[in-house]
Amino acid sequence: MTEESTKENLGAPKSPTPVTMEKNPKREVVVTTGPLVSEVQLMAATGGAELSCYRCIIPFAVVVFITGIVVTAVAYSFNSHGSIISIFGLVLLSSGLFLLASSALCWKVRQRNKKVKRRESQTALVVNQRCLFA
Q1: How many domains, in total, are found in the chain?
Q2: 47: left (phi over 0), alpha (psi -120 to 50) or beta
Q3: Which residue has the higher pLDDT, 20 or 41?
Q4: What is the pLDDT of residues 54-63, one digit of tens each?
Q5: pLDDT value of residue 41
Q6: CA pair distance 26, 66, nearest whole angstrom
Q7: Scanning 38, 70, 77, 86, which has the fewest C-beta atoms within 10 Å of its C-beta?
Q8: Same structural domain for residues 56 and 110?
Q9: Is residue 126 part of a domain?
Q10: Position 74 in a domain
Q11: What is the C-alpha separation between 70 and 90, in angstroms, rounded?
């Protein structure tokens, strides 16, 4: 199998490789090329995990949320309203809530898409079954 047919099978991009130019201390221009990665190659490398970001966000969001609770509690236990630590705690708290909410939203959208795909495939099966028995 040739290299070109392998690239076509993996979905390699058709455009030329990107080129970056840098100047080194001797005032010479160094040209560095880097490969482009297509979505197919990314899915092959990650095993399709790029579509499950909501599962990765949840643990990080929980840690940030708990840290925000602790920092805010410590700040307000010393009556330091408006200090840097209380603002930092509130920022962590709100960031954790935002990450949890976005993760829940992504999960709901993903579930809805799965339901639509199931319904479409079931409709196709019923139509095929009717054609067979008609």
Answers
A1: 2
A2: left
A3: 41
A4: 777 888 999 9
A5: 73
A6: 52
A7: 77
A8: yes
A9: no
A10: yes
A11: 10
